[in-house]
Write a structure and sequence with these properties.
The protein has two domains: 261 residues, Aminopeptidase; 112 residues. Helices cover 51% and strands 16% of the residues. Strands 1, 2, 3, 4, 5, 6, 7, 8 and 9 form a nine-stranded mixed beta sheet that branches. Strand 6 and strand 7 form a beta hairpin. Helix 1 crosses helix 13, helix 3 runs antiparallel to helix 8 and helix 11 crosses helix 13.
Length: 399
């Protein structure tokens, strides 16, 4: 199968129609909101119209907030330290230090998609994934999984441009490190009662305090319409599903999944991997996130605190696909994470694709109210569908 042989303007136009429906007609699709439910229902209806097999919804409990649990962890740590300073007793400092250690652990665990005590205070809510299967012509010898998240992010000031976004991601690490240091100083102060330790502890609390204010602000902002992040990825996944139903792969069945709660901690991908990782362990996982503007890129590494890298064999396949198709593929380290990080954690063969402008000074509307369909480049949707089609063709031909 030659690259570009089956991807035409009409297919790209239909993908654009899906994008417009998600971002314009449904609009903001916050995690665990009615907008996310409507988007899931729309994707399921498109799957059925295309004739995919086994269309179904996977319900799961996901986080309703991206920042609330961090705010709870930091706020409780700071409050315990302030109370210890007011009480001025050794046991109060030791208790505050212990609480701060638990808060630092919660912040790390939340960033690494693990259960932690903040989940008891901010409860999970219902969300859903939508799954469907594109069958192979023959009895399948291979399996591929395409994922794209349907939910959208809030629009805090630190996502207003690329400079602020970089500063936020660096500050996130500083907040965590400062929380750990302040916990240690507070414990030490409970034993030594040195005035200088109290002063240092107060100074080190500044980054977590500013982080707490930023997180509280972020959770009060409206949700983005999410044309780029991530109606573009969902539209490309639907375009690929249509292409696969018209031109099935010989030896590969492909599951297409629209996930929920990515923006608040990859909850949909976590639910999917928890239930399917063993049966789909030999699959190729392709994640599409922000594939609507500029030139394609491959995420080499992801994570807020702990970083997870793409497997060498997946990187090799991505490079082979780029070479065979003639479609340029940049390689970059992600500042944050995509759904693919869950697959990386479990050692699955996973590839995460995005797209962004290559010209200096041009930015994307990621996590902004300006993330509307008018910002999207149809040629990037075409390029994404074409590239993934070629990658699936290469995967189909593997021995």
């Amino acid at each position: 199968m030659d690259y570009g042989e089956h991807v035409d303007q009409e297919l790209t136009d239909r993908a654009t129609t899906h994008l417009i429906h998600l971002a314009d007609e449904i609009g903001p699709r916050g995690s665990c909101t009615q907008g996310e439910v409507q988007a899931a229902q729309y994707v399921a209806s498109v799957f059925r119209d295309l004739g995919l097999d086994d269309v179904h919804t996977q319900d799961f409990s996901g986080a309703p907030t991206a920042y609330g649990r961090y705010a709870v962890a930091i706020g409780i740590a700071l409050l315990s330290q302030v109370l210890a300073g007011w009480m001025q007793s050794g046991w109060s400092y030791i208790l505050a230090g212990a609480i701060s250690i638990l808060s630092a652990w919660a912040m790390y665990a939340e960033s690494d998609f693990r259960q932690n005590w903040t989940h008891w205070l901010i409860r999970s809510r219902r969300s859903q994934n939508v799954l469907a299967r594109c069958p192979a012509r023959k009895t399948p010898e291979h399996l591929a999984v395409i994922t794209a998240h349907i939910d959208t992010h809030r629009t805090p000031f630190f996502n207003s441009n690329a400079t602020w976004q970089r500063l936020y991601n660096r500050s996130f690490r500083l907040i965590f490190i400062s929380l750990v240091i302040s916990a240690g100083l507070t414990l030490l102060n409970g034993v030594t009662h040195l005035v200088i330790l109290e002063a240092l502890s107060i100074a080190v609390r500044l980054p977590p305090f500013l982080g707490l204010l930023a997180f509280l602000h972020a959770d009060s902002t409206p949700f983005s319409p999410g044309a780029y992040d991530n109606a573009s990825g969902v539209a490309c996944a639907l375009g690929i599903a249509e292409l696969l139903m018209q031109n099935p792969l010989e030896n590969t069945a492909v599951w297409v999944t629209a996930t929920g709660c990515e923006e608040t901690g990859a909850g949909g991908m976590l639910a999917l991997v928890n239930t399917r990782a063993e049966s789909w362990r030999q699959a190729l996982w392709i994640n599409l996130d922000q594939t609507g503007i500029g030139q394609l890129y491959l995420r080499l590494e992801e994570g807020m605190l702990r970083r997870y890298a793409i497997q060498p064999s997946a990187l090799q396949l991505a490079r082979q696909s780029s070479e065979a198709s003639g479609i340029p593929m940049r390689e970059r380290h992600s500042q944050a994470f995509s759904d693919a990080i869950i697959a990386h954690q479990r050692g699955l063969l996973s590839i995460s694709l995005g797209a962004s402008p290559t010209d200096q000074g041009l930015e994307t509307p990621r996590h902004q109210l300006s993330d509307v369909p008018a910002a999207i480049h149809p040629e990037t949707l075409y390029q994404t569908i074409d590239y993934v089609w070629g990658m699936l063709s290469l995967w189909d031909q593997q021995e």
